Amino acid sequence: MKKVNLHLGGTKLRFLFLILIIFVSAFLCLRFVDRWFLVPFVEYGTYHYPPNQTIPFFRNGEVEYGKTNQFGIRQPNGLKNVNCHYLVLGDSQTFGSGIFLKDRFTELLNAETNCQWINVSVPGYTLENEFSIYQTIKDSISFQKLYLVIYGNDVYETGDTPDFLHFVKRQSWYRDVLTFFLPEYSRSIRKREYFQSVQVRMTEELNRLSNLPLLDNKKRGNPKDSPPIPPNYTSFKTLYSISPNYFYESLQVKSVSSQNWKRWKQILFRLKENLTKRNVALTLVYIPLDVEFDSSRFAVYKEIGFPLDPNWLTGDAEFILALQQLAQEFQIPLIDLRPIFRSHRDLLQPEDIHFNEKANRLIADTIKKSL
Q: SUPFAM superfamilies of this UniProt entry (predicted)?
């Protein structure tokens, strides 16, 4: 009868167990390094308009040319010789997409206050981009206060949006191995590369527009003279097809988007820490999603099929509650625009999420009252 070498079998098991312990220890160690040593210092990346150029911007088919500065940020109508300068960070709502420059709230504040409001927003910006552009310009522009304008979808945009996921799918396989060991750090690298790809697409599109013959507004005729076109909400239906849970992922930051909320807060804390070191004050301004104040638009989204919570129209979503708690904990002033928006109608551009001139007037007036 053949003897079984039990000693050899036990040695192999001990060896495999040792390998397993080493692997698990290395895995946990790398995850710890990822969370506490790499992520707090990553560069997020950003994009901007081509610097020092004249670019066409549009309002309902009408063109308005604007100049960009050395940072690729649209310049205001004029600079004021004043002692107080306020920097304003935000996305397309803060930029004033779809309205003329003179009507966006920062230009109204420039005209009606004794301070210079420096709007460095770009359409599509996330908090990552806003922090990055702040890092780029903070030593070149003097300002005593920073207004961070937070739109209701900020946490959603900080997450893995459909466009970003499409970009990730085209990346090399070995990135997935890095993601397994250093998930947040490798994600930050991909995000930075994604923003670089957005820069390329933006430049290509603006070059295409610059080569098109743009008619003078007088030759276009008055858009009001054209027969009204029934709304079809194509862009909303497209959003539903690629991100049906868009509103819950935006507003329910504790129950649905907790990971994205943690990422968003981490960026905010980095910004706050940097401002504190520079002795620059911070004020938060919350601009709500349309489902938080416009019942007509709420009904449109509901008909399309978006899951919605009726409480958002009159009550508090998790996002604003979390913001209020955060602002109170760190003693950061928070301007909540929901009350003033809920008391007015017709604040949105037709078939668009962006705010019109009336809404920008309300924003400017509300900020002025807080000064």
A: SGNH hydrolase (SSF52266)
